[in-house]
Design a protein that fits this description.
By secondary structure, the protein is α/β, with parallel strands linked by helices. It is built from 15 helices and twelve strands. The protein has two domains: 334 residues, Alpha-Beta Barrel (TIM Barrel), CATH 3.20.20; 63 residues, no CATH class. Helix content is 33%, strand content 14%. A hairpin with a 2-residue loop joins β4 and β5. The two termini are 30 Å apart.
Length: 422
């Protein structure tokens, strides 16, 4: 039966970018939200900048929280639901961390007891302030906070997977304390799925919180290796959705494609609409998709300095709120959301459960290559852990009827006979 899929956008204010919290202008926000609502989208994801809201460990600025509530209320007036990211954290190549965690006050973001309690208090405060708003979806702990926990960050806050597990449990509990029953989750960039030494693991992503969130960016080596019109590039978002399902305990756990965009120059502006349409079409062929939230709403103003070049043009709308061709693509998809009823994916590709070898799933790895070979052959694959590949009850619950290893899905090296599918 058809089911609803959410279509939304990550809200980047057209005036002042996320620095708009310093000079909050509700009229400007309303104009931005009008331009988003005109596309027929149903939700936005918003980003309070953590140091602006909690400049001292024991000071959460009431005026900043009130401005966030005003934004959420303005969204409600336009029929938009709101997800709020708490710990910002990292956005568009910039780190935003409060001074009480850095330099002379350097303390680990994930393991220091005082920092952890300060974070929990902040998340609980934001959630509680919004709990009574019917259009408040829930909290995301922060934007890609895993980038602080390992390289290539220049100054990582190292932690073990067990310490991260405890941190996620505490932060999600704080959100639930503030807003019981809402959809609270965490979201990381794709190193969680691809980088062997990341302490944020695939199992955590697929088992903590109300949904699994994936962020898909083809500048991770996919477009560089294969090109923007390739099967891997156009199906990368769908791949992450299906890869995440291998680790989920719930056979029908929802997956939120929470960030995806068309980054120049790998996807030139004149080809962004075609890339957007292909990405959305293939993502909608994934069962149990919660929603698609595009990055981002409005272009970054050219008056702002030092952003990576690609950040200035990622918006569905220009900086003066004019829709681009990509906006039309997402608007059409949103208007047809009632047709979402993908068939089960019956072929499962085996992936290693051991997070120490998750690079097998990264661009150039055998799982990655095998998945897209199967996709090119029309197999519509999903994934299954090697520890579950023989679990008939698990496979049946997911609708899987065929299990394939990477060796079986890829051409055999010259001089070696390939195996047959099991």
């Amino acid at each position: 039966m058809p089911s609803a899929v959410r279509f939304g956008v990550n809200y980047t204010p057209s005036e002042g970018w996320f620095h708009h919290w310093l000079d909050f202008d509700l009229d400007s926000v309303r104009a931005d939200l009008d331009s988003i609502a005109a596309l027929g989208l149903d939700h936005i994801r918003v980003f309070p900048l953590w140091p602006y809201f909690q400049p001292n460990r024991t000071l959460i600025r009431e005026r900043a929280v009130a401005d966030l509530v005003r934004l959420v209320d303005a969204a409600a007036e336009r029929g938009l639901d709101v997800n709020v990211d708490g710990l910002q954290g990292h956005l568009s190549s910039f780190d935003f961390l409060p001074a009480w965690t850095r330099t002379w006050h350097r303390r680990n973001l994930f393991t220091d007891p005082d920092v952890v309690e300060g974070q929990a208090g902040y998340l609980r405060t934001l959630a509680a302030a919004l709990h009574g708003r019917p259009n408040f979806i829930g909290m995301t702990l922060g934007n890609e906070v895993n980038q602080f926990s390992a390289g290539p960050h220049p100054d990582p806050d190292r932690a073990t997977a067990e310490q991260i597990d405890a941190w996620l449990t505490r932060m999600l509990a704080a959100c639930e304390e503030g807003a019981p029953g809402r959809l609270h989750l965490h979201a990381e960039y794709d190193a969680t799925w691809y980088q062997d030494d990341q302490p944020f693991t695939p199992a955590q992503a697929a088992r903590h919180g109300g949904v699994t969130a994936v962020h898909s960016w083809v500048f991770n080596g996919t477009a560089q290796r294969h090109g923007r019109t390739s099967v891997p590039a156009e199906h990368h978002a769908a791949y992450l959705v299906e890869l995440s399902k291998a680790w989920a305990d719930d056979p029908h756990r929802p997956v939120w494609l929470q960030e995806v965009g068309a980054p120049a120059p790998l996807v030139p502006a004149e080809h962004a609409a075609a890339f957007t349409e292909a990405t959305v079409t293939h993502a909608l062929d994934c069962p149990d998709l919660w929603g698609i939230t595009w990055w981002c709403s409005h272009d970054v103003s050219r008056e702002l300095a030092d952003f990576p070049a690609l950040e200035y043009g990622l918006g569905l709308l220009t900086n003066d709120r004019k829709p681009k061709d990509t906006a039309g693509v997402l608007a059409r998809a949103a208007s047809a959301r009632h047709t979402y009823a993908p068939a089960p994916r019956t072929t499962a590709l085996v992936v290693p459960a051991d997070p120490a070898v998750r690079s097998a799933c990264a661009p150039g790895g055998p799982v990655f290559d095998a998945f897209f070979r199967l996709t090119a052959d029309g197999a519509r694959p999903t994934t299954v852990l090697d520890t579950r590949a023989d679990d008939q009850d698990h496979l049946a619950a997911r609708g899987v009827t065929e299990v394939v290893t990477p060796d079986q899905a890829l051409p055999a090296p010259q001089g070696r006979q390939g195996g047959t599918r099991s």
